[in-house]
Amino acid sequence: MTLVVISLASISLFIYQVILNRIYSALFWYHYTFLITSFAIFGLGIGGIIAYNQRQKSENLKTHSLVKALFLLSISYIFSLVIIYVLPFQNNVLIYLILATLPFVAGGYFFSNVFEQFGKISNKLYFADLIGSGFGSIIVLLLLNNLGIYRSVILICVISVIAWLLLTMQLKKKTLLGGIGVLILFMLALFIPNRYVYSIEQNFIGFITNKTKTLGTIAKSNQKAKIVYTKWNAFSRTDVIKVEGDNDEMIVTIDGTANAPMYRFDGKKSSLSKYKDDIEYLPFSFGNNHKTLIIGPGGGRDILYALAGNSKEITGVEINTSSIDAVRHFKEFNGDIYNRPEVKIYGEDGRNFVRKSKEKYDVIFLALVMTNASQNIGYALSENYLFTVEALEDYRSHLTDNGKLAFLAHDKEDMSKLIATILRVLNKRGISIKEAPKYMAIFTKEIQLMNGNEHIHYPMIIVKNKPFSQLESKKLKETADKGKIVPLYIPYVNDKGPLYHIKQGHLTLVEFENGFSFSATPATDDKPYFYDFSKGVSPVLVFIFFFILLGSIILFTPIISQEKAFKPSLYFSSLGIGYMLIEIPLIQKFILYLGHPVIAFNYVLAGLLIGSGIGAHFSNAKVFNNLSNRIYLPTLLVMVINIGLIFSLNSIFKVTSNFSLVNKILIAAIVVMIQGFFMGMPFPRGIKILSENKKKSKTIPVMWGLNGAMSVIGSVLSIMLSMEFGFTIAMLAGAILYGFISLQNRNLVIAK
């Protein structure tokens, strides 16, 4: 029964973590979300410290502390999430950090107590814990995509209350009736009518009152706007906003910021002429446009430009299926744009779609695919496989002989990095740097002078499979002049700027990339952080890393010093860091293979955790626990397998690229479960050794908490290494750390 309780508590805590991330992604910019959730998970360590200190005061709290911890966990979920939801937006991260941390503190208190009290069966406890987390990562995807945010929140409360009741029954406590009453209340809350659920989900007070998001920005400009459509799923919160007085446009937003306009359209092609003066029409203003691929059509605007350019076959690929649902919901407004006979819409990742496709296109168009990235600090920590060197090679290979690849960017930073990427791709094709500018044309909507500097707004970059002809360049110039669009570079007719100097040999590619105050170095599939323009490590990550490191030193060092537990603390710290150094880049590498970040996160993580849970179960086997040996075998195998994956994953992806998604998920699960099997062994082995030492057994809650805190350090360090050096180096660092652990078999764990 205890193992079932642990699994249920683990499921609920994992789902809470994902829901928290989803809610905070809608409430904040990405870097704040990462900041808060990182600090909140650090609450696991605080829970371990509390458990240790409480045991020091009284030895008679064993079973009572477990029941109390589960009760606090159940109540803290609903308390924290309800307060976060109904609280008007506060420009104070600390408030949201405290609210987010409460369930993690309660969870840390519960789990550290469990491992301290039942340390001799730590392999079974860790098995139950990881299996619960693994299933939680699958369940949360199903919950958010099918039940929405409200019912998902209620369900984690139901799951944790059931765990509380089971433990109460096992220990024959008197709180059973009260627990049943709480469970009934939560069950009733699950079945309130859908119209009330929709109203609750739409009226997220903090979201609505946040002046930094799109709705708040509109309000600050003295315009009135309202949300007319809302849908939550595992990927985003999607809204449609209608501005009062504007009857021709609505705004589709993702997490309140990534804006895509949805235009009023009567379905008649004769109504499309007004779009021919826009910069987005330029790729369709010349040449053959019969077959078009639009990656990220959002609210359907780009479909209109393709129709205006007489495109007969238009394929749209949108990763956020809720955006597709929103456009179809307002079909009477937008002319049922996604159901026209010329149009086919697919709900998946654009890059993955291209890699699977056998089609050739006359135009491939990506317009503001990650919108509002001009505020790039919000997206710098997020990987993006759409704009890597390999991505542009994929797009080029799916163009017809005279096909066009077009990007609508946000600003000078986007534009410069895209140009550098295009130059590198053309060079890899065998086209010299001097010849490459003949394949490109660049425009901008406007240039503003601010503080003596030029600010480029919404530049358009068009690159062809063949050099531009003089006739094509002339046609582009005429279209740009008619629409009052500013040409930045057009071969033959507007030959100026950095591309002119590259063409003349005055400027090399390296000099071009290094000639900006920001980083214009092209992103790659191994380092796909396109929107990271910082030169050097992200200040946000550095702050999180050192703050949590300092917090860990302050929290744990006094106890470690008092108990003389330096060796076990080094062991559990190394495991926490090493696990995340492998887990995070492994998940990120599978994103491109599986075609969606949410699918990769949930299923790959599930495979890794379940594999680790199974490994934990077998961690007591004699073959893995010979302390007389110099090397600890499981961690050595982790290192070997991890290095093997570094060199073999790309080949595995290539050989199985045409498999169905289900088969790809199975392959991913098998690969990571093999790795996870051995990664799950060292932790319960360390707990068991501590439990067998009377002097050191009381430090188990501290070691459990330290491992959790170092996991946060490991996750931050993993992203820092990935952004600076790539996923391969991050995984290699994890392998080296596990190798270090394996070489310290006799010295690192023995707590004497």
Automatic annotation (TrEMBL):
Keywords: Membrane, Transmembrane, Transmembrane helix. The chain crosses the membrane at residues 30-53, 65-87, 93-112, 124-143, 149-168, 175-192, 536-557, 569-587, 599-619, 631-653, 665-687, 699-719, 725-743. The keyword Nucleotide-binding does not apply. CDD domains: AdoMet_MTases (cd02440). The keyword Nucleotidyltransferase does not apply. It comes from the Bacteria. Pfam families: Spermine_synth (PF01564). This is Spermine synthase.
